[in-house]
Target: DUF1450 domain-containing protein
Amino acid sequence: MGAIVVEVCDGNAITSLDIEGIIESEFPEVAVLMNECLAFCGLCRVRPYALVNNRRVHGNTPEECLAKIREAIKEELAVYQ
Model:
């Protein structure tokens, strides 16, 4: 498993992107976990989101959320460098 974990709810709008393939190819030290439910009831219906090391990251569109996920990963990686 990677040093950084990104968790995504299967029912989330961000799954319209290949989030797992995109993130894991850009950041080999990151593990993307697809879950049935992350227990933030209703949030996945409102906007795309993911958890980056248990911190919620969201955007108005899947692309915006992906950009914010990338930034959160870079912040987390800075801790390890």
Summary: The two ends are 18 Å apart (CA to CA). The beta strands are 4-9, 30-35, 49-52, 55-58. The longest strand covers residues 4-9.
